[in-house]
Amino acid sequence: MTEPNPSFFVVGTDTDVGKTVASLMLMRFLIRAGHAPYYWKPVQTGCLSPNDAGADASFVLKYCPEVHQTAADATGACFRTPKAPFYAARDEQSSVEVEDLLHKLAYLRKNNTLVVEAAGGLLVPFSRTHMLADMVQLAVERFGIKPILVARAGLGTINHTLLSIEALHHRGVQPAGIVFVNNKEHRTPQVMLQENMEAISTFSNYSVCGCIPHIEDFSNPPEEAINLFERIAG
């Protein structure tokens, strides 16, 4: 890699599309490439604490033993209710302060290769005045952090992915890459997978870099799940 500290903002077309799995595979790729990546989740909703087993930071760091972070260090704000950040914070008489998060991001960006994982889809309310996509735009403009768009592999992904690309373009942002994630419950037939990739490429001029398959053992993920990030981060 020519950039000393390449940094990425992992965003999704929706909630539960596989952003955390993609973030973990990206971390594994960066470690293999000789970097010491720092994982950061600006806002976590749906858990009591960053140390909860279901918290994204706990999951990612569990499978990155080379990374010396705590889940608390890797999480900006944590709210109990599984809702859009603005509403999850409001339920606790709190708020998400985007400028505070960007200030923290500026500090982390100085000396680190970052993997920043978003919460929800691009147009979820992050604060009273900002959607997540607005924070992504500011992260790109101020710190040169490159967004990676994560999408489901199966039915519905064409619409969700193309709309997400439009939301980024509307803010002058180009995704550094697009990654599909397959899951155990709804494995996508190969024909549909290829059609979905073809449609996104045809109507957006962005190629899908690959598909992360269902992973049974995250301590020993398939090589293809890690290597597909070579096209984005290599």
From TrEMBL:
UniProt cross-references to HAMAP family, sorted A to Z: BioD
Binding residues annotated for ATP, in chain numbering: 16-21, 56, 117-120, 181-182, 213-215
Cellular localisation: Cytoplasm
Alphabetical list of Gene3D superfamilies matching this protein: P-loop containing nucleotide triphosphate hydrolases (3.40.50.300)
Family: Belongs to the dethiobiotin synthetase family.
One protein family per Pfam: AAA_26
CDD domains: DTBS
Cofactor: Mg(2+)
Function: Catalyzes a mechanistically unusual reaction, the ATP-dependent insertion of CO2 between the N7 and N8 nitrogen atoms of 7,8-diaminopelargonic acid (DAPA, also called 7,8-diammoniononanoate) to form a ureido ring.
Active-site residues, Swiss-Prot/TrEMBL: 41
Amino-acid positions noted as binding substrate in the UniProt annotation, renumbered to this chain: 45
Protein name per the record: ATP-dependent dethiobiotin synthetase BioD
Catalytic reaction equation(s): (7R,8S)-7,8-diammoniononanoate + CO2 + ATP = (4R,5S)-dethiobiotin + ADP + phosphate + 3 H(+)
Alphabetized UniProt keyword annotations: ATP-binding, Biotin biosynthesis, Cytoplasm, Ligase, Magnesium, Metal-binding, Nucleotide-binding
